[in-house]
């Protein structure tokens, strides 16, 4: 029995490591997509798009590892929740990476055209989203409910910035119709970052479910 527990704990540790590795890939994709936008760097944007395959493979690996754990170890109660939460986290992380790819594709569409204004609030949103990504993964590995609940406050901050960006861009479009195309693309970028924050908050909810057995609604 003790040996079986040791084997499960070792496999679970490998699963946690795979999630952290995937999370680091997602953080890099988020940062690089916005740097590519800020600097109008099409080469960096193409790199984000190309590396998305690695994130997809990481998700598949986590699902396979978790499935094997369930099949071979037949975990119950909190042990089972640890595996099920890993599945959900991998899905949220993969969707965050997809949104980073969407931002990189905006760089393609801008296609070297000078930005209509220096980016200020979008990089601020990005910084918060990166912090959320890091913190929600740490909350999982430490099973830290307090850290998980912090996602709600940071998500509110991102929502506020998103609303501020949209108001500003709408005003610029009204003042100068020639900005409409690029302004709409920047609206999409802001929305993509806002959705990333939602996914990070979902992970926070999953951590609370893991620890207490009940899922809260942090996306209110």
From TrEMBL:
Tree of life domain: Bacteria
Location(s), subcellular: Cytoplasm
Keyword Transport: yes
Record's keyword annotation contains Protein transport: no
GO BP, sorted A to Z: intracellular phosphate ion homeostasis; negative regulation of phosphate metabolic process; phosphate ion transport
Domain PhoU as annotated: residue spans: 20-107, 122-207
GO cellular component: cytoplasm
Keywords: Cytoplasm, Phosphate transport, Transport
Matches recorded under InterPro entries: PhoU, PhoU-like_sf, PhoU_dom
Subunit structure: Homodimer.
Similarity section: Belongs to the PhoU family.
Biological role stated in the UniProt entry: Plays a role in the regulation of phosphate uptake.
Protein name, as recorded: Phosphate-specific transport system accessory protein PhoU
